[in-house]
Amino acid sequence: MLHGWIKTSRWMPLIVTPLIIKLAAGFLAFAGIATNAGAQVRLNSSSMSENLDAIFAPLVTTHSPGVAVLVVQDGKKLLERGYGLRDLQSAAKIDPRTNFRLASCSKQFTAMAIMLLVHDGKLRYDQKLTDVFPDFPAYGRAISIRNLLNHTGGLQDYETLMEQPENKAKWTDDQQIQDAEVLALLKQTDHGMFAPGTQWYYSNSGYVILGLVVAKVSGRPFPEFLRERIFAPLKMDNTAAYVKGRNEITNRAYGHTKEGDTWKQTDQSSTSATLGDGGIYSSLEDLAKWDEALGSNKLLSKEEMQPALTPVRLHAASGSNTQPRWPANSDRREGTPVSYGFGWFLDPYRGHSRRWHYGETMGFHSYGVRFTKDDLTIIVLCNRTDLSPEALALKVFAIMQPRQNQSNN
């Protein structure tokens, strides 16, 4: 590279002056520093990967179901790895292409489908449930699409309705309840749990209905709309809303529960066939594409995304505007604040803004979080129920803290 600084000619001898010597020495010193810095970056990256790996490797054996982990910061994958087996019968290993049932992490895709219909001008957030389903009972006249998206609609829980004596024997692990049957159950009731917009109650019923709204308004089956408008454009080629007998899930992980010292495959329940609330399968590889698309607004503009990222406020009879609180019998401490948009929880963690969701269903736990200002995404998918993916993700966050503090200073 020094030849760019020192001109030579076969007709002229090379003249080396003290100034040139100093410049050359300075350049070599700079090059050495740059080389050492590059090696240090590589060392830090390798060390970080080892630290992250140390969280998950001890959790599995060569004969156990396991976990898949994605850690992305500043657009770079720091960890994308599977641990354990996706299927104990075949002993197939978990890898970045293994497809897990996302459970309630599916809700972000259902919300996006609704938002795309709003973008198309085919739907409005203030439209009522009875506008889409005119034969829905009268209490649906007060429930808006927005209420369903942010869990303030007050629909009764369909799993509770399934347990009523007249319904209890209708559905089994093999004869699973379908979305249309959820709608039929809700049509048999004549009231909700509360006036829409006055309380917050996490509602799987609401998101099943949203999936049906997408199908009704678009004229396309919900799984096809997702594929055509979200999965295919983002090249999420192995992500799908699973409908037994109609499509298959490649590289599928099967859910498991530990019983004593053994593992039992517990992959399906009577509620595993519903779609809008939790029926999507996806992998680390595809979810990385989804995360990148959200960060770069590939599907909707930044302005169009704002409703999804704006926490809901409650409107009591007095007209007050208040933040909702976790109700009794939830998995969070009763009375603590709830910050929820469309398919995302939005509360900060230790002063770091984030959007996140968890999922829990027969044999599976899932958790995905994006710390927005830190440009850090952590996704943890488990095909076993003895692990908390949220707790594991926050362990990852604790390891990432020193780097975040440096980047924030």
What are the main properties of this structure?
single chain; 409 residues; alpha+beta; Beta-lactamase; 5-stranded antiparallel sheet; 34% helix; globular
Can you describe what's shown?
The chain has helices spanning 18-56, 107-120, 129-132, 145-149, 158-162, 179-187, 204-218, 222-231, 284-296, 302-305, 389-408, and strands spanning 67-73, 76-83, 85-87, 92-93, 100-101, 240-241, 256-259, 262-265, 280-282, 314-315, 321-322, 355-361, 364-371, 376-382. Strand 7 and strand 8 (262-265) form a beta hairpin. It is globular, with a radius of gyration of 26 Å. The model is unreliable at 1-43 (pLDDT under 50). It has one domain: DD-peptidase/beta-lactamase superfamily (Beta-lactamase, 3-Layer(aba) Sandwich), CATH 3.40.710.10. The protein has 409 residues and is of the alpha+beta class. The strands form five sheets. Strands 2-1-14-13-12 form a five-stranded antiparallel beta sheet, sandwiched between helices. Strands 5-9-6 form a three-stranded antiparallel beta sheet. A two-stranded antiparallel sheet has the order 3-4. The relative contact order is 0.15. It is built from eleven helices and 14 strands. The protein starts with 17 loop residues before the first helix and ends with a helix.
